[in-house]
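Consider a concrete sample entry:
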Amino acid sequence: MYELKFKVRDYECDLQGIVNNANYQHYMEHARHEFLLDRGVSFAELHEQGIDAMVARINISYKVPLRSRDEFVVRLHVKKEGIRYVFYEDILRLQDMKLCCRGQVDTVCVINGRLGTTSELDALCLDLENN
C-alpha cells in the first residue's frame, strides 16, 4: 500500500463547486508516478531501455465529490495479472476518510515494440505481496 496526500486547488473545480471528474484521473496518475519513483523506477529510464509502460484501461467509480481546498489521500497497490500490471487506487477525503472514488488502472509494457513484462515492475508486485 502506498499513500500520497493532495489538496484540491480551486481551478480543478467545475461550476457546481466540485472537482471535475477528469481531475481524479490526474490525481491517480500522479500517485502512480510518485509510487514508482519512490521505489526507484523511472518512466524516463525505462523508455531509454526500450520499455514503455502504457495505460490499457481505466475504470473509475465516483462516490463522494471533493470540493475546493479539501485535503485527500490517494492509496494504491499493484498486482500483476498475466502481462498486465493492475493498479488499484482509492481517493479518500482526509477530514472524514470518506471514499471519494475508486479506480482500477490496467497497464501494459511495450518492450521494443512488443507486449511483455519487465523485471522492474515484477519486483514491485512481489515486494507488495510479501509486505
About this structure: The CA atoms of residues 11 and 68 lie 8 Å apart. The longest helix spans residues 21-38.
